[in-house]
């Protein structure tokens, strides 16, 4: 991997890491200027991950469940709903999905919610910043990928599940004919 950061005018740059391990550049400038330019490049080599089995702790296999006191501090606000929904529309949608599942198994319900979004919601490319409110996404049954991610997070949080937004690149082995280097953890 190779990275570069060029800043004009010259700046003193300090690197930090946030709580999630992301690299943060803090730039300090000594001169006033009328123009500010950042040029950042990164070259990344991607490797496929081996197939993983998704598992849950025994206590979390069936909904509803409660996180242990030890986990609550680490979860922060990730299991609290973040959008105003006075009619409880989003939790109502997820309870409806739950009612269609043959069991209350957490993984089955989350998969059913994901499949419902894939089959019943329309993708719309959107270049505007931010996300649309999940209460707006639900009746329209349309949005961008980030809108669907936030909608699913709010639906999961309606069950008290912790959820956070993570973005990045997904390696697709079909891009290079199904071949790649050794898996990197």
Question: What is this structure, in a nutshell?
Answer:
By secondary structure, this protein is an alpha+beta fold.
SSE layout and pairing:
Blueprint: E1 2-8, E2 12-17, E3 23-28, E4 37-43, H1 69-75, H2 89-100, H3 106-120, E5 122-123, H4 134-140, E6 142-143, H5 145-157
Parallel strand pairs: 5-6
Antiparallel strand pairs: 1-4, 2-3
Helix pairs in contact: 2-5, 3-5, 4-5
Description:
With 185 residues, the chain is of the alpha+beta class. The protein has two domains: 2-43, no CATH class; 58-157, C8orf32 fold (Roll), CATH 3.10.620. The protein has five helices and six strands; from the N terminus they run ββββαααβαβα. The protein has helices at residues 69-75, 89-100, 106-120, 134-140, 145-157, and strands at residues 2-8, 12-17, 23-28, 37-43, 122-123, 142-143. A two-stranded antiparallel sheet has the order 1-4. Helix 3 packs antiparallel against helix 5. It is globular and about 65 Å long. It starts with a strand and ends in a 28-residue tail after the last helix. 14% of the residues are buried. Residues 180-185 have low confidence and may be disordered.
């Amino acid at each position: 991997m190779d990275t570069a950061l060029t800043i004009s005018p010259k700046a003193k740059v300090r690197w930090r890491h946030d709580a999630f391990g992301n690299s943060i550049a803090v730039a300090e400038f000594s001169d006033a200027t009328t123009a500010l330019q950042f040029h950042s490049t990164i070259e990344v080599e991607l490797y496929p991950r081996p197939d993983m089995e998704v598992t849950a702790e025994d206590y979390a296999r069936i909904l509803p469940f409660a996180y242990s006191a030890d986990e609550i501090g680490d979860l922060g606000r990730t299991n609290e709903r973040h959008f105003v929904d006075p009619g409880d529309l989003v939790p109502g949608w997820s309870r409806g999905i739950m009612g269609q599942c043959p069991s209350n198994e957490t993984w089955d319900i989350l998969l059913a919610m994901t499949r419902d979004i894939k089959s019943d919601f329309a993708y719309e490319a959107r270049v505007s910043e931010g996300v649309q409110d999940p209460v707006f996404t639900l009746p329209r049954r349309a949005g961008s990928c980030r809108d669907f991610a936030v909608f699913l997070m709010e639906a999961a949080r309606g069950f008290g599940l912790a959820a956070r937004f993570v973005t990045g690149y997904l390696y697709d082995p079909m891009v290079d004919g199904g071949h790649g280097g050794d898996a990197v953890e």
